[in-house]
Structure formats: structure tokens, C-alpha cells
């Protein structure tokens, strides 16, 4: 292994251990998935058969996770089923390659993607489109989940994210009512100091 070779080389010269940095590392997402679902691994989404895709910063058509596999599935989702064209919404502060291909691109303040995810969950739970127990373990990790996330009303989330409360309501109903639907998170939102909480929030919404 390259890491072993480099370590042995540095050791011969009395140098300190190498600093490891992975540009496209996904440690936060792996750990979030371990906490939410019990598996410390990257997710595999069935985009090809989805009717609604809601991405929180995941540039899956650009550099995130497996862009080749995602691009093939995305093409199938958009054009592979007669009379069915899934809707794709991208949430991010800065437009990515993936965002440029979305039906709806939603700009939010940096680091507030998870807040929006919980705002959508609040609307869904309040409207009784799903129950808190539907999210199982992933929901239990979120403070206030069992009581319907009272701190994440559309009005409160609008103030923090920069979106209108009406748009938050609309997005939540679309996501819950056009299944099978999937929410995903990746890239920039998970690199913030609150990256873990953002990943957990999107996992709970997805669950």
C-alpha cells in the first residue's frame, strides 16, 4: 500500500508521519449513515426509478460519489420511462454542474441546507403526510423530531435560509406526495462546522 510505503520512507529519515488529506473525502457522510442507519458507507440511490429527487448540495452529476453511475441513472430517470419524467430539485448556495441540470434550483444561505431539510420535515409531519416513527432511528437522532420539530416552522426556516415560507411549504408537499422520492446530501454542506447535523437532518427527511 502507498500509505505504508510513504510511512516507511519518512521513518527512515526521522520525519513525522504524513498528513492525510482527501479532497473528495466522505467521512462525515459515512459517519452520519452509521448513526442514522447502522452502516458506515456511502449511499446508493435508485435514481432511475425515482419520481422526485431532492439534492442538498450533492453534485452527483459532477464530482460527488459516483458521477458515472449517477449520470446513467439520471438519464434513465429523465428519459427512460414513457410518460414519466421525474422532477429534480437542487438546493445549494452556489450553482454546481448538477444544479444547472435541475428543474428547480434553490439558493440558500451557506450552511443552512440541514435547516431547510428539517423545515420540510416539519411541514410533512404537521400535515400528517408521514408520522415521526416512519423515520425510525434516523428521526430519533434529531432534537424535537417526535414532537413534530416545533422550532422549524416555515416562517422560522424562511428567516434562516433566505427562502419564502410559501416555497418551503410547496417543496415539502411535492416531496412527500410524489413518491418514490429521495433526498440526498453531499459535498459542500457536509464540509461546514455543522456538517454532521446537516447530514443527519437530510437522512431523517429521507427516512
Architecture overview:
- With 207 residues, this protein is an alpha/beta fold.
- The chain has 8 helices and 4 strands.
- Helices cover 42% and strands 9% of the residues.
- The termini are far apart.
- The model has no long low-confidence stretch (mean pLDDT 93).
- It is globular and about 65 Å long.
- A 4-stranded parallel β-sheet has the order 3-2-1-4, covered by helices on one side.
- The chain has helices at 2-12, 27-37, 67-79, 113-126, 136-140, 154-161, 165-177, 195-206, and strands at residues 52-56, 87-91, 104-106, 181-185.
- Helix 4 (113-126) packs antiparallel against helix 6 (154-161) and helix 4 crosses helix 7.
- The longest helix is centred in the middle third of the chain and has 14 residues, at 113-126.
What is the secondary structure topology, with strand pairs?
Elements: H1 2-12, H2 27-37, E1 52-56, H3 67-79, E2 87-91, E3 104-106, H4 113-126, H5 136-140, H6 154-161, H7 165-177, E4 181-185, H8 195-206
Parallel strand pairs: 1-2, 1-4, 2-3
Helix pairs in contact: 2-8, 4-6, 4-7, 4-8, 6-7
Short structural summary:
The protein is an alpha/beta fold and 207 residues long. The protein is built from eight helices and four strands; from the N terminus they run H-H-E-H-E-E-H-H-H-H-E-H.
Amino acid at each position: 500500500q502507498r500509505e505504508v510505503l510513504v510511512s516507511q520512507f519518512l521513518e527512515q529519515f526521522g520525519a513525522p508521519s504524513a498528513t492525510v488529506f482527501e479532497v473528495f473525502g466522505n467521512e462525515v457522510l459515512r459517519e452520519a449513515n452509521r448513526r442514522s442507519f447502522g452502516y458506515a458507507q456511502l449511499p446508493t440511490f435508485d435514481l432511475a426509478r425515482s419520481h422526485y429527487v431532492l439534492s442538498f448540495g450533492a453534485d452527483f452529476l459532477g464530482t460527488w460519489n459516483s458521477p458515472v453511475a449517477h449520470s446513467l441513472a439520471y438519464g434513465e430517470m429523465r428519459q427512460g420511462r414513457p410518460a414519466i419524467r421525474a422532477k429534480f430539485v437542487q438546493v445549494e448556495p452556489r450553482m454546481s454542474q448538477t444544479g444547472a441540470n435541475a428543474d428547480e434550483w434553490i439558493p440558500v444561505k451557506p450552511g443552512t441546507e440541514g435547516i431547510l431539510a428539517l423545515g420540510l420535515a416539519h411541514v410533512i409531519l404537521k400535515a400528517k403526510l408521514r408520522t415521526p416513527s416512519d423515520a425510525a432511528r434516523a428521526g430519533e437522532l434529531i432534537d424535537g423530531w417526535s414532537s413534530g420539530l416545533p422550532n422549524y416552522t416555515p416562517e422560522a426556516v424562511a428567516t434562516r435560509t433566505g427562502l419564502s415560507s410559501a416555497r418551503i411549504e410547496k417543496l415539502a408537499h411535492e416531496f412527500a406526495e410524489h413518491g418514490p422520492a429521495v433526498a440526498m446530501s453531499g459535498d459542500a454542506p457536509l464540509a461546514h462546522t455543522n456538517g454532521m447535523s446537516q447530514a443527519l437532518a437530510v437522512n431523517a427527511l429521507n427516512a
